[in-house]
Amino acid sequence: MVGALLLALALPFAAHAQQTDTAAMAQQSAAMHRLDWMHGKWRGEARMLMPSAGEKVVVHTERVGTLLDGTVTVIEGKSFDDAGKVPFNAFAVVSYDARTQSFSMQSYTGGRSGNFPMTVLDKGYAWEVPAGPNAKVRYKASFDGTTWTETGDFLAEGQPARPFFKMVLKRIGDSDWPVAGSVTRD
User: Which of 68, 62, 67 is nearest to 80 (CA)?
Assistant: First the structure.
């Protein structure tokens, strides 16, 4: 009897947790429009300064789209070396929290992942990754109307910034990713 009473009391809370918060979704969608410039397929060059191997230059690609009625932006970055191998592949989900009015990026690459605060600028963004005691990696991106440029700097307390990454990409077309091929009702 007590179990049935607890279940009856819990059902309204569970149902409430599943309801769509249309106001939050509208705020999320509006905020995510600030990243519309990224949508599509991109290709260009990336230069990475490798600690033990010097500078590595690769062909870098990005594809960017939205899910959940435009409330999240998904990004896949993939690099190709001269032999066609993939030395770098990353995936990220950018979202906006209507409660805190802040962006975040959930990033996955090379066996590592994390959720990082993200600052969205008029035509760009910035985000940071902890890199040890008193150190971090800062990424900054900008879009000038035709070119997406992103840089990465290693920052250690008391030392000048050390650039280690730069990509310069041109938009090569539209993309229906990730919506294309999603599961349908039928």
Answer: 62
